[in-house]
Structures are given as C-alpha cells and as structure tokens.
Design goal:
Layout: E1 2-8, H1 12-15, H2 21-30, E2 33-39, H3 45-55, E3 60-65, H4 67-78, E4 85-90, H5 96-101, H6 107-113, E5 118-127, E6 130-132, E7 135-139, H7 140-146, H8 150-156, H9 158-169, E8 175-181, E9 184-190, E10 192-196, E11 218-223, H10 227-240, E12 249-254, E13 256-262, E14 266-269, E15 272-276, E16 279-292
Parallel strand pairs: 1-2, 1-3, 3-4
Antiparallel strand pairs: 5-6, 5-16, 7-10, 7-14, 8-9, 8-13, 10-11, 11-12, 13-16, 14-15
Helix pairs in contact: 3-4, 7-9, 8-9
C-alpha cells in the first residue's frame, strides 16, 4: 500500500484544524494510502516531519495549516533526493499558495478535491538556505509584517497585515537598494522590494497577474517611494493588476537576483521572518510536484 504522511497544525484555522482531521484521513485512505498522522507542537516541526517522510520514501505528504505550516513542509521536502507528491489543506489567514493554485479555501471542498486532483510540477524559490512558494519581501514593511502576532492574525485576519504594512509604507523610511538580475543592475532608494512567484500576494490576487506557478520566473517589484498619496495610488493599481505601471514601481523579470541593502534588513518569506540582506534568490522551476484540481491547473 502507498504511504502518506499527514502533517497537521492543530492551532491553524482558529484552532479548528482538528475538526477536519478525520475527514482528511478517510479521504486519503479512500485514495489508497496508509496514513501516518503527525501533529506539530512548535516551530520547525512540520519541516522535520516532511524531511522524515522523504527519508522514509513516503509517496505523499499532505499538510494542513496556514502559509507558515505549508512553507515549513515545503522546506522539509525541497532539499531531499526523494521528494514525495505534495498536497495541502489551507487553514491560514491569507493562503496565498492555495489561491495561486486554485485550491478551495473551504476546507471541506479542499479535502474532497483531493480525490480527483492531478499532480502538477510547480516552481518554488530558494533564498539563501531557505525556500518560499509565494513571496519574498525586503524593507520596513517586511519587518513590520513579521511582527504580526498570532493573536492579531486570529482576531483581524488579513487586516492585521494591512495595518502593519500601511504603517511602514507611509513612514517614508527609504533604504539604499541594489538588485542584480539577469539583465543588469538596479540601484536607488526604495521602501520595499517584493519578489513574487505567484499571482497571489497577501491575499491580493492581482499584484503580479502575469505570474504563473510554473513559468520559471521571479517577478521583482521595487517600490521607490511611499507616503500616503503614493500608497493610495498603488493600492488602486494592485486591485486593477497594474502595479508594474505605477511611476514609483520598477518591475524586473529574472531567474536569479542578488539583493543588497544599506543598512541590512530582515526578509519576510511567505509571511514570516526568514533571513537578512544581502541575499541571493533563484527560482527552481518545476521543483515541487503538487496535487491540484485539474480545472484550476495554472
């Protein structure tokens, strides 16, 4: 019988994850898997369990939780010689990876769709020694978002990120930024650098509307200035899918990038603090084999 490891974060989804535990197990068993359940108790557990599944040549890893849990599971798989098929049930605040792949944000629907989902190779990216699926952010806004507490996420959802991001973007604290990419170098003052892999960033599905999950491209946005007027203008541009057309935004498409700042800043990977500048980023095309609904294949 095929082996599946089901990694569950019991604190995800406003602590409703256990509600969907048995339903997920039964679904995986109906798909022909012998299921081993692993419940996380702290940071790093999902990565440890996913790495164990690789070492023990499991056929499938299914993760249930928010973007942080999914990111950990992917980090556990990414470096391994044997990388099992991957699937996940989104239960987080934003769920960008699920949005990008067309996986339902309704847990029951996401679980049910596993039965008819098909494998599809998608990109992930490497930033120094860590991996991300959606977004790398560098700047004061990235540092502010990293400070959003679990309690804030639970009470306010996406609004918690917007509040902290608004504070940082309107502070006018610019940083000297250098971005080396496949086509040259950009240098100047900026308040934020975003490296997007998918079209969904922070719950906004039009920030990088041309980004596909398997295009092998990093979509780099350099926000040169902020302040309230620019923030309002860019907010409208994001909603319309036209951020790259804003006069204070530079958009670069590349497979690799080296990002340096003065002073050094922390980087936010998929919503959590992950590393510091200077940093090398590269896309790993088709590196992860994910079960997704065929009608939503991107």
């Amino acid at each position: 019988m095929k082996k599946a490891m089901f990694i569950l974060n019991p604190s995800s989804g406003k602590e409703l994850a256990s509600t969907f535990k048995e339903e997920t197990i039964k679904t995986l068993e109906s798909m022909g898997y012998d299921v081993e359940v692993k419940e996380t108790q702290g940071e790093g557990d999902a990565m440890k369990f996913a790495r164990q599944a690789c070492d023990e040549t499991y056929d499938l890893v299914t993760a249930m939780g928010g973007d942080g849990t999914i990111n950990e599971a992917v980090n556990g798989i990414a470096e391994q010689a044997h990388r099992p098929l991957f699937s996940f049930i989104p239960l987080g605040t934003v769920n960008d990876f699920a949005r990008a792949l067309g996986i339902s944000l309704d847990p029951h629907e996401a679980i049910e769709s596993l039965k008819t989902a098909e494998p599809h190779f998608v990109d992930i990216a490497k930033a120094s020694d860590k991996y991300f699926m959606n977004i790398l952010a560098v700047g004061q806004v990235a540092e502010s978002v990293s400070l959003v507490s679990v309690e804030q996420k639970t009470k306010l959802g996406t609004l918690a990120y917007l509040i902290e991001g608004f504070k940082a973007l309107t502070s006018k604290e610019e940083t000297q930024v250098y971005v080396q990419h496949d086509h040259g170098t950009w240098e100047g003052e900026a308040v934020l650098v975003l490296v997007a892999l998918t079209n969904s960033v922070g719950g906004f599905e039009k920030l990088a509307p041309k980004a596909e999950t398997d295009d092998g491209i990093l979509h780099v946005f350099v926000v040169k200035s902020a302040g309230l007027p620019a923030f309002m203008r860019m907010g409208t541009a994001v909603l319309l899918g036209k951020l790259e057309e804003d006069p204070d935004v530079v958009m670069i498409k590349t497979e690799k990038a080296h990002i340096k700042t003065n002073p050094e800043l922390s980087c936010n990977l998929d919503g959590d603090e992950g590393c510091h500048t200077p940093i090398d980023v590269e896309v790993l095309k088709g590196h992860l084999n994910v079960l997704i609904p065929m009608q939503n294949e991107r």
